[in-house]
Amino acid sequence: MPWSADRFTPPSRCAGQLQLVDDPTMPQRPLRVALACLARCRELKRLLTSTGIAVSAQTRPDDPRLIQLDTDQADVILMEVEQDDVDAPWFENLEAHARLPILLQDSTAPLPNSPKILYRKIAALARPGEGPQKLQRLWILGASTGGPQAIKAFLRHLSPDLPAAFILAQHIGAGFLEPLRKQLARSTALRVVTAKEGHVLKPGELIVAPVEKRLIIGPGGRLHLHPYPPDTPYKPSIDDLILQVAERYGPRGGAIIFSGMGEDGVRGCLALAARGGRVWIQTPESCLADALPRAVGKRVPPEVTGTPE
Which of the residues 75, 85, 171, 224 is marked catalytic? Predict the structure, then answer.
């Protein structure tokens, strides 16, 4: 079904088909919400419209076409979910690939007492990057054996005023992740934080990807944590994070491959370069383990090759 401006009558109940809504009572240029609901569609819509928010589309939460929505149709997806939905494959696929931020409403929880509470949450998601702190570029730093020393040397030279954020994918044991974060924090002026559910990427910060959870980069730079597929060979997966950046950020994405073993990162760098993103590698001769940067350099002509300094 095309996302058009055709007029549709709002449904009295949530049906299985997505229905675009044209409500003449809506104010001009309001915030627009795509409502994905279960049993309380009418109540949620009443809350939204009472604050001047336009319900621009309505469907079921598991409608795969929600992934297609972009800012031409809505600003935020408001989704009413049941407890088991967040572990369902359709939800994980939506969260990984949706072009719009998603606000979840527990189907068993009371609705907000004040419509203003809901409005503030939606407004914050709809405009996460406005103002002087707008994120212009996202870099993935990929490393394995010998990576921590190289990463520390690289970070010493970065200004916290850069309009960019960094995510570190370092192959390391889970028990060593927090000590590494503390070491890096002492080595750089960037804010160094562990990835947390719901965190929104900001310029001038370094996110340390977890080992035991898959880090998902959602719409608006909002981070989510999910279980890894059982056959994932490396955790954190450098390939997975770079592939996400290639898909979401294209030419505004970048990857820097430091010292390491194996080939985790090659596939992601190929996709990133194909979408106009930047690929840099550490000079193999300066690496403690040169297999990883050499593997990337053989498949993807790097824009920059240099020492961490």
Answer: 171
Query: Tens-of-pLDDT digits for all 309 residues of the chain?
Result: 233 223 223 333 344 444 444 444 333 458 999 999 988 999 999 999 999 999 999 999 999 999 988 878 998 999 998 878 877 889 888 887 888 888 888 888 888 778 888 888 888 777 654 434 568 899 999 999 999 999 999 998 888 888 999 999 999 998 999 999 988 988 888 889 999 898 889 898 999 999 999 999 988 899 999 999 888 999 999 999 999 999 999 999 999 999 999 999 999 999 999 999 999 999 999 999 999 999 999 999 999 999 998
Q: Choosing from 237, 264, 286, 290, which is the catalytic residue?
A: 264
CA distance linking residue 96 with residue 59, whole number of Å: 19
Catalytic annotation present for 171: yes
Q: Identify whether 231 is a catalytic site residue.
A: no
Instruction: Tally the C-alpha atoms within 13 A of residue 267's C-alpha that lie toward its C-beta.
Output: 10
User: In CATH, which of 3.40.1180.10, 3.40.50.720, 3.40.50.180, 3.30.70.360 is domain 137-306?
Assistant: 3.40.50.180
Question: Is the separation of the CB atoms in 288 and 149 below 8 Å?
Answer: yes
User: What is 19-126's CATH number?
Assistant: 3.40.50
Residue 107 falls in the annotated catalytic set? no
C-alpha atoms less than 13 angstroms from C-alpha of 114 in its C-beta half-sphere: 5
Please pick, among 144, 237, 259, 286, the residue that the annotation labels catalytic: 144
- Please list the residue range(s) of the chain that carry CATH number 3.40.50.180: 137-306
